[in-house]
Amino acid sequence: MRSFEDLGSFAAELIAVEVGFHMQLAHGLEKVAQKVEKTAKDEIGEYQEAIGPFPDWEQLADSTKEDRVRRGFTENDPLLRSGALRDSIGHQTDVNSLEAVVGSTSDIAVYQELGTEKIPPRPFLGPAVEQNRNAIKKIVGGAAIRGLLGGGSIPAELEYDHDIHEG
Q1: How far apart are CA 117 and CA 136, in angstroms?
Q2: If I label 102, which of 9, 13, 20, 38 is the partner at 20 to 30 A Cα–Cα?
Q3: pTM over 0.90
Q4: Terminal-to-terminal C-alpha distance of the chain
Q5: How far is CA 76 from CA 66, 72, 102, 103, 137, in A?
Q6: Which DSSP category does 124 fall into?
Q7: Contact of 106 with 112, CB cutoff 8 Å
Q8: CA–CA separation, 102 vs 35, rounded Å?
Q9: Which residues of 73-103 are buried (b: 16+ CB within 10 A; e: fewer)?
Q10: How far is the C-alpha of 165 from the C-alpha of 135, rounded, in Å?
């Protein structure tokens, strides 16, 4: 166990641990946001099965398929035409507040994610989080442990997947 000569050196150590902990969490949060963003982008153009509270994607209507072909797009790649919707997906991480947002700058994303009177929901942001639930726990949990250890190695008995943190 470490001992301290005075309260000042103990306080300095606590501050250093807090700063290191925060930095590790911020790094983990950025990795999580990148992973969720990639998954959401990968879902565009592929029919998705139900996951968590999110429904599976209905097949495109025949009229939609015909319209897609008439406009020069592939017949049956849901939500993928020019790639603009996919490319509008991004993330922002605020390292100060330890918050991350993964979303789209396209209004079309809202209609597709939630559905409308004429469009069935084809969510891709919420399911991306659900698909990564275990990885999120490991990445954030690993970051917290690494922060408490002052950036040191995580003991193998904690069964932490190092590849997730490093990748």
Answers
A1: 34
A2: 20
A3: no
A4: 33
A5: 10, 12, 26, 24, 35
A6: -
A7: no
A8: 10
A9: eeeeebbbbeeebbebbebebeeeeeebebb
A10: 9
